[in-house]
Design brief:
It contains 16 helices and ten strands. It has helices at about 5-30, 60-70, 100-110, 115-120, 160-165, 175-185, 210-215, 235-250, 260-265, 275-280, 335-345, 360, 365-370, 370-380, 390-410, 415-430, and strands at about 45-50, 75-80, 95-100, 140, 145, 145-160, 285-290, 305-310, 320-330, 385. A hairpin with a 2-residue loop joins strand 4 (about 140) and strand 5 (about 145). The chain starts with a helix and ends with a helix. Strands 1, 2, 3, 6, 7, 8, 9 and 10 form an eight-stranded mixed β-sheet that branches. A two-stranded antiparallel sheet has the order 4-5. About 40% of the residues lie in helices and about 15% in strands.
Length: about 425
């Protein structure tokens, strides 16, 4: 071996010795705790989440799934009756699931946080995936106060058994006013206390809110602009036409019961007679919302073999939606953890409502969860949905009350549609200071 080979071998041996020494030294000082950097520990955090009792059983598995990504976060679930949501104080929880009007009310009282900064910093949160209007419905003054949790869609329910007995087809996705009228007349049997269509509510003081849908389907309107109303338009010619048609369901075709007829046919407590009629199989069709199905949000289940369809179309298809959303209390001490929980929930499939995200609504999982009919109906309905902000809705309350009184006068034949709506227009102008 020449000197070059000896030198190279010597260097390799020396390097190996130094490596062994270094490893032994490192192991020694690590064991003594002198050199290794301490592992960062995340402090455990507990957040409280309030949700309506009707969603019992839905959030428990989601908490377990959430903890797989955030093991240091504990979510305490607090279930309350739906009508108790209005009475909750901001210090009772970190996060709340509330309906759209309550978001507006809590914002007014300073009870919730602006979520805009969190949305801007969250790379995963895809705001563009939400159905148009659902995010905006929970915003105000350029700030986002809530993240949509689910959408409640206005739909038409029908009694399958009554349709079968009448030998008529079930409503389709693109059915029309003519289809609706023919079905209502075919199903009706007033002598047996059965009507093809009923408006829901109290027989002592019905609101006839359903008539507004028919007005807008025909191209009419109750105010000049639903998003920013400046004047009432209750005597608009198309509004009059729509209500002339609607009134005939009661007065000419005998396909819908007047309040007096409903009390006689359905009996029981007049306050709930119409509900008793539909849940006991005396109604062919009625307008409700997705979360009504089968009596899900009712005190008692429906005794009806029911189906679901979009609202019928005339000049246009139209329905209304309401949105429930997640809010963070202004008094929380765990803002970041609260947002992580909301961000996680916004990507999940809601149990009671329709997903506010198009990607979820279009998924096979949604169809499997709801069934093909309901999934198809809600998807079609969302394409013709009108979203009215809670702020505007509050402004319209007086107009809607006047409208309902006018329709009641028509149905009970106290006034013609023209006379009733001319009166309503005058009253509404006074309410709006015109």
């Amino acid at each position: 071996m020449d000197w070059g080979d000896l030198l190279e071998a010597s260097q390799k041996t020396l390097s190996l010795i130094w490596l062994v020494v270094w490893l032994l030294f490192s192991a020694f000082i690590s064991g003594c705790g002198l050199m290794a950097a301490p592992t960062a520990e995340i402090d455990p955090v507990t957040i409280t989440f309030v949700y309506p009792a009707v969603d019992e059983g839905y959030y428990e598995p989601l908490v377990q799934q959430f903890n797989q990504s955030y093991p240091h976060l504990t979510v305490e679930l607090k279930r309350v009756p739906f009508d108790r949501l209005d009475d909750l104080a901001p210090d009772e929880a970190d996060i709340f699931l509330v309906y759209d009007y309550l978001v507006y009310q809590m914002k007014q009282e300073g009870d919730i946080l602006d979520l805009s900064p969190f949305i801007e910093q969250d790379d995963v949160f895809d705001q563009a995936d939400f159905y148009p209007g659902t995010v905006e419905m929970l915003s105000s003054e350029g700030k986002q106060w809530s993240i949509p949790a689910g959408v409640d869609v206005g739909v038409m329910y029908y009694n399958r058994d009554l349709f079968d007995q009448a030998g008529i087809p079930y409503p389709g996705l693109n059915w029309t006013w003519d289809d609706f009228l023919n079905s209502a007349v075919a199903v009706s049997n007033p002598e047996a206390g059965i009507y093809g269509y009923i408006t829901t509510g109290s027989t002592m003081d019905p609101s006839y809110f359903d008539a507004i849908f028919f007005v807008y389907q025909h191209g009419g309107k109750i105010v000049d602009d639903l998003q920013s109303p400046t004047r009432p338009t209750l005597n608009d010619p198309l509004t009059i036409e729509a209500l002339e048609w609607y009134t005939k369901l009661y007065t000419e075709y005998d396909a819908a019961p007047t309040p007096l007829e409903a009390r006689k046919a359905f009996r029981g407590n007049p306050q709930y007679a119409l509900y008793e009629g539909l849940r006991n199989g005396k109604a062919g069709m009625w307008i409700g919302v997705l979360s009504d199905r089968g009596g899900l949000t009712w005190p008692i289940e429906w005794f009806v073999n029911w189906g679901m369809a979009p609202l019928p179309r005339d000049a246009q298809a139209i329905t209304q939606v309401s949105v429930e959303g997640y809010v963070i209390s202004s008094q929380t001490e765990n803002i970041e953890a609260s947002w992580q929980w909301i961000s996680f929930l916004s990507g999940q499939m809601p149990g009671r409502l329709m997903p506010p995200r198009r990607s979820l609504a279009a998924s096979a999982a949604y169809e499997q969860q709801m069934g093909k009919e309901i999934a198809a109906v809600t998807r079609a309905s969302m394409e013709s949905a009108v979203v009215v902000s809670p702020e505007v809705g509050e402004e319209l309350n007086d107009i809607i009350d006047i409208f309902g009184q006018a329709v009641d006068d028509m149905v009970n034949e106290r006034f013609s549609p023209i006379d009733a709506l001319n009166w309503a227009q005058q009253e509404a102008e006074l309410k709006m200071g015109q």
